[in-house]
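Database export, one record per block. Field names are fixed; values are copied verbatim from the stored entry.
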Amino acid sequence: MHHANSIDVPRVLIAALRGGSGKTVVSIGIIAALARSGKTVAPFKKGPDYIDAGWLAMAAGRPCHNLDSFLFDDQLVSQSFISRSQHADIAVIEGNRGLYDGLDKTGSTSSAALSVLLQTPVILCIDCTKSTRTMAALVMGCMHFDPRVNIRGVVLNRVAGSRHENLLRDCIESYCGIPVVGAIPKLPGKDFPERHMGLIPTPEHSWAAASIDAATQMAQNHIDLDAVCQIAESKSVLSPYSSAPSCELYVIDAGQSLPSETLQTDAACDKASRPRIGIVMDSAFQFYYPENIEALRVAGADLVYLSPLEMSDFPEIDGLYIGGGFPETHAKALSENSRFREDLRSRASKGLPIYAECGGLMYLGESLVLDQPYPMAGVLPIVFGFSKRPQGHGYTLVTVNRDNPYFSEGIVLKGHEFHYSRVIEWKGKDEDLVFNMKKGRGFISCSEGPKDGVCMGNVMATYTHLHALGCPQWAQSLVRLAKEFMKNKN
């Protein structure tokens, strides 16, 4: 039996030479096929992406966790991975972009760096369109570029036929000395339409279940799953950062005990003193890290789920968290639920603490202009429009530059943004914006540069998504404000 802070679970990272090589479909297929064979698969997504994580979770039948060494430090990445993996038969991590692509020339936040940190063997998924022997050179280059990265196998994708496959296999296996563990033909696009891969699937989406079935079929037919499991077994025991404080970890999977610090805080909050925090969760608002939701519970809140698409009556709550999503594809339905919008506006004016990210920020505005203006909740004096190109895309660094109820002045927060919406009209004041953008586009630019973090009363709304592991203050503040609201209400 290994020390509780070490892990011996079989694990593998699926990487690629660049984005768009097909590694998401390969990862979904491997995870779903292994899960259907009776294995407990712990799925992970490298990077901040919500959408791929949603697909991987559905394939595994359990939550997918993001591993991101920009949003939180290596110590917490390791701890998080260990915590989520130790009761699984195998852990499968989907990388992002190209294997060595990171934020700087050292590739410090790359999939390769993650594989070294977690001592995880790599399977490289390569798009073989119109190439043969050159692919062996690319694989060999990846193997030698950083010898610490343990590349153990290759999946050939978009193979044109058996002659193409045999030549690729011969070249890679003889020049690189590692096995080809899968060869996938060009698949018909109807099974994996791009539009669907850009949406988070939920069990009620029949098209999502069909896509996962197709990916499973693909993996069973074209990938040697036993060879994948053997590669996963070739990892070493992972014993990182034995001094790491376990109380920083928020999501504890079933079967694990909570850290003692958490148990004490939880036990200290008897039911009557636990505020109720609403989380807006439906097909319009679905971008949430599992850790963020659990962090609110660990900080002492009871959670209530609500939907402006499906509910007109507002439940009794003491705080509200509205994540990102696709309000633009549900603008008509959101605008037609005027009772919910008016109730939200009225509660905000009475001091209900509300924290909103991206799509949630849009919903709190006055209106969203698409083919016509659609009225939104009207909590914040903003009119949003929509663009065909992303208006903000990538990691963000923000400095908290004004006093506000959520974050200490002067601290730097790490997050990410991805949005197509833009501000058409901002009717607030400069002092309502509490984040200075050091990196990223944010909400609006003014004389001091790009800004984000609209804060009015107890409402905070921002394009920047935060991860609870990298920003413990976020959940603690929202729960503290909810407790104060609950006390003042009674």
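Remark 1: The longest strand covers residues 151-159.
Remark 2: The two ends are 51 Å apart (CA to CA).
End of record.
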